[in-house]
Each structure stands twice: as structure tokens, then as C-alpha cells.
Fold these 2 entries.
Entry 1:
Amino acid sequence: MLSELFIIINIISSIIASSGNFIDSKKPIWIYNEQTKNPLCLYTSGFYDGIISCEECGNSDNYKWYLSTTADDNSIQITSALDTSSCISYNDNNELILSDCSDESVLYYDDIFKNLEISDKCIGIIDENNSDSYPYINLENCETNSNILWDFSDVIPSKAVTPTKTTTSTPTASSVWLYNENTELCLHVFGYESNIPTYEECGNTDDFKWYYVKVKEGSFFKSKDNPELCLRVDDEDESKIIMGNCDANAIFLYNNIYKSIESKKCPDNCIGNPNFSSVKNVKNKVSLYDCNNEVRDDQMWTIKKSLPKLKPTTTTIYKPTQTSTVAWIYNESSNSCLYGPDYENGIPTYSECRNLDDYKWIITKKKEGYYFKSKSNSELCLKMADENKIIMGKCDNNALFNYNNNYKTIMSKYYNDRCVGYEKLHSYGVALYSVTKKSVTLYDCSEEVNDDQMWKLTTSFPRKIVTTTRTTTTTTTTTTKSPSPTINTSYRCGKEFNNKSCSKGECCSKYGYCGTGSNYCGTGCQASYGRCNDGGRCGADYGKCLNDKQCCSQFGYCDISDAHCGLKCQSDFGLCYGSDDRCGEQYGRCKGKKCCSKWGYCGTSSKHCGTGCQPKYGLCQ
């Protein structure tokens, strides 16, 4: 039996590159799925609109097909040997049928993932274990599933050919790069036994290239530098990844949705580096660690057919050199500054602001978030000791935070519903204005941002806002007309703050703070000094939707329908639909009745709607 590579080369060699029309192959082939218990082939009765099934491979024309391809891309059409004027197509029930050759019969074959795609879905086998009849085929989502992997053969497939055979040193698959987009680095290894692969700047030599070889249980990743060796889990240390024999320890499962490479031997553990350095020119050895609850950035690998190109370095979003600003971190409600001890494991506190280095912070913007470094000891950062405790420590991944300029919150990079504040003080309802030396902590801010969690970053020394009460004697008229509000320039508003009014679109909370959330525009909102409503309106005249799960339509109304979240949705004042089925803070809301997974993908499966589902950006179970 000839190899699948010979078939593909034979097809491509018959192409004349002078036109983009479909060109027929002269030799019939079988299209089979060998990942099932027995090789199963596509079968047709030859009737027009007849449903195509999957049966044990036979030698009649019912099992034979002709491929037509183009010189322009990997699109193909498949015609039946029984009737070469009819092509594989599909009906409204996502069933494969034999029908006219048209745009609806154009398929795409991915020679890496072995997928046959039509109408953005993959041909898959349903009910493989049904003992009463042969399984039938259908169109389904192109998720990792052995029953959507298809091969071509110019002879009848049989059990004599098995993809688990590994005695050949030269795989039939083309070589690929394993690319981590977050770091812009490739997986690299020199081809000798027991060598540990590393993250490196991508190159075009064989030590950067891999053979991605499908086997029944999963996949092998063979080094092109030495195809006898596979990426594998070490026999003694299951967290260690080395080059070695292509055996059971070398079988991995590649998830095309989450881009993870999971060990077959150690389920729920993926290739990455939990202590990955952000410095791109430093060698970082890969290892195997947990990816059950979350696939981290360093565990996401894209399989590239060509040398990955680095992202432009002229972007204004991420710069190759970090930018830093020295500032005070100021809590206006308590008139306090964040004080950072200059020794490791010291606990930061709310303290009276002073013009000393202990009260200043070097705020460094990184690709992944922000570091808040103590100016008195720039080796130490504000960091999480656990999900509640904040300390001073080494500037590692646990020291990364996000800063929300709208809500003035310092939010954990890894617990995106927890913000820096003082939970005990808030819980007991004690006024913040008399706070001195109160330890900060990390606590929930998903439903409400409290005053103690609001931090202003200022490069000038913070000054306490002093409000004075003027007592004047009026001789005649008394009037109930409210004093004319003045525009607020310091985020305070209301009767107790010189009758200052918020900027257009903002609300004045009952405590005298300007903002756009429900804490500002809801109960107790001061209508004389800003906007107040029930959240039904939005836009330039009203501000953001009060419900942060809603979209702002082109006409200025809040809701989650297609009319609100789709065409001309106002993203400055609410959510809008994301693109390419992505969702979350960077992308927006899922279209229709879909869930937004913890990793920012839209869908309806349990992975999307279950643990970690983001209700702000779609439905959840």
C-alpha cells in the first residue's frame, strides 16, 4: 500500500498552475478513517441526494472516489467513481450527500490535522460503537476527536497498515514549527537523547522543526534534527520533558481549540513552563504541569507550516522595552497612600502620604500587565502571597496586576474578580477617613467596587481635598434653587464637595464620587450633580450601560439582543459582539445563545458553559 504522502504528491504533481479551476486526478482513491476499531471508508449508493455513509472498506466503485484540486489552495472536490458528475455535498441536517458539484461541494483538507472541512465544519463519524448498524457520518465542530481524522489511499485500506508503526525514521508528514504566540518563541531542541527542549527565538534550521505524526492513541512530535527521537515524558520524573524513544511516554494530545499539548501518560498536564521568564532571549526549558482548570499562555502552542514571523515592534500597545513611571498610589476616600516596606515579605499598608521613596512606586508596564515596584527597593514588587494576602516580594508572575483606569482598581492578573483594598475595614462599616497603617489585602470586586479599592495613580504629591463651609448672612430673599454646579476635576462631587458636578455621562454617587457603574448611578445617586437613571439608556448623553453585561445600541439603549450588540453597537458605552467566536474583555460578547469559556472562546459545550464560564460575555450553565 502506498503512503498517503505519495497520494498527495501524485495529486499535486498533476496540477497545471496556469488556472484556478478544479483539475481531476486520474486514479480512484479510498477515503478512510483508520482511527476507528477497523478501517472505515466513505460509501455511496450512487443515488442523487443519497446519504453518504461509512462502512468497512470494499473494492467496488461504491467505495472509490476521485479528487479534484486547484493550484491556488488546499480546496478540493470529491466525485464518486459511480457518477463522476456528482460530488460530496451536504444537506440542511448536516448530513453528507451525493449532489451537484457546486460551491457547496468545495472541501478543504488539512494535511497536518487530517481534517476534511466543508461549510466550516469537519466530517466526523457518529455512533462508531453502534452494534446494530454501521456508523453514519455527519458535520460537526472541528474539535480534537480521532473520528474526524481522514487519510487517502490508492489501494483498499486494511488492518495491515497501522499508524502506530514507528520503525521508519523519516515520517511522511511535512515538518512544522511549534510556536508560542505569547512569547513569540518556538520550541527548540538539538537532536540527541535526553536533551530538554527550550523556548527560543524562531529559526529556520532543523533543530526548530518537528514532524507532527498522528497515531491511533494521539500524536508523536519528532525532531527533524533527529527523526528517531520524540518529545516524551521522562521515565523517572513525570514533570520532565526530554527527547527519547517514540513509545507510550511520547504520545501527546494536541487540542486545536486551546492550543495545548497534553500528555497521554499524564492526563490534564500540558507542556509549558510555570516559571517562565519574560526575557525573550533567555533559554527556558519546558516541563509538564497542570492544565486541568486553566491553560496558561506558556502552554499554548500553534502549529505553523512556515517560519513564524515576529509581530511588528512598532506597535504602540506592546513595546520591546518596558516603560516605567514613578507615582504615588493614592486612595482618595481615606486620603491615604499605599506604603511599601523595603524588605521581603513586608505587608503594604494604607498610610498618611509622605514625600519619601517608601511611599513611591515604580509602575512598570509589561506585556502581561503591570509591576508595582517599591522605589526604596526596586528589586521588590507588590505581589500575591495567596488569593487574599498581599506582600512585598520578587517581581515574578504573582506580582503582575491589571489597572482599570475607569474604576481605579488594582486587580489581580490571575484572580480577575479580586482587587487590592482593605476588606475588614469595609466589612465593619468603619469610616476610612481616619485610617492609618491599615494592611491591604485582596478581596472580591466582581459585583461592587468599594471606596477602599479605588486607587489613583498620581505623579505629583497627593493633596487632601479640603472642603469648607461658608457661612454668609443674607438680608432678604430666600430661594430653594440649588447652587449652580461646577465641573469636577478631582473625581469628587455633590453638596458636600462645593456642589461640584461630574463630567458628562458620569453619575455622582451617594458618597460623592464620580463614575459610571451601578455603585455611582444606582441607589443614592445625586441627580443634581450628574446622570442618574435605571440603566436603560447609554451613549454620549448618558454614559455606559449600568449593567456591565449589556450592549449599547446605535440608538442609545441597553440590552443583549442582536440589535443592541451587533451592527453599529457603541463599544465605548457597553459590550459588543466579538469577532471569530472570541469573547472576553479583549473581544466582547458572544453572538447568540453561546457561552464564553474561561479562555475566551464562544461555544455551547460543557467546556464553554461550565467551570470558569464568563457570564459577563455570554450565557453560562
Note: The chain has a mean pLDDT of 76.
Entry 2:
Amino acid sequence: MSTAEFEQRKLELYLKFGEVEDTPTREQLSSLKEKLDSGAVPFADLSIFTVDQHERLKKARLSAWNLDEDGSAKKVLIARAISPGEWGENIRAYTMAMTMLGASIFADLPSYARTISKLQKVYPEFWTPTIMAADELMRSTKLSKYKSATTETCGSAFVDCAKYSAFPG
């Protein structure tokens, strides 16, 4: 996606909603647009698809090195699950991206996010890995089952699956 197209989509979003804190980056929007244009499920890993993408990358670069016993720098892999709060922030950025691309109306994804949030509140001990795994499975593979010829947008598919918190296959 060109910078001009991104700026145009951002302007349209701001005209509808005013200044939005959870605006995705051009890279994030481009990635989702490419998936949507190819007919693929618009999956985004919410541990990476963050509100402040550039700050997250900077922190990852700074924290991906440790000192060895002999004092030499050693690169380490950092894998961590995101908290429910981080998930909430990141799903808002994803919602804005889907809205900017016309793949959803703004109200669609918050209904899905509320379903995940309710599961987390009822079963907090199962946030990692059970609820996160169910969410990722739905967004990565099951969404296409909810999106049918009668479902106009991906957002409508999210609304449909929000009705079924067990995400039946």
C-alpha cells in the first residue's frame, strides 16, 4: 500500500471518528489488505499487531540480547503471551485496520472482543493458553466458515462467531 493510499484511508477514518489513538501503521494495514485482496482470512497475530508497533519493535530489539557468562552479548528468543489488557488494545488496532479497509463496520469487531473478554473474566486462569488459542484458531482458520455468500463482510462473520463462544466447527 502506498503512503498516499494509507494517508487517504487514515484521513477518511479521522473524518468519521475524529483523532483515533488505535490507528494501525501502514505496514499493518498493507499486510491485512494483501490478505483480503487475495481472498485469504485476514489473520493478524495480536502479540505482534500492536497499537504502538514501532515502540514494540524497539523494545524487542533492546531486550533480545543477554550477556553470557564471559561477558559477550548473546541474542535470545523472547516468547511471551500477551495479557488480556494488551489483547484488548491490539484488537482495537485490528478493528481500526479492518474498518479502514472496508472489511468491517466499526461496531462488528467490538462484539467479538466482548465475547473474548467475557470468557477471560469468567475463566481468568485459562487466558493462557486456552482462551488465546481459541481466539487465534477462530481468527486464523474458522473465520472462513462463518463468512458465507450471505455474509457481506469479515466483520459480519466476527459478529456471527461472537454468538458462539465455543467457536463450533
Note: The chain has seven helices and two strands.
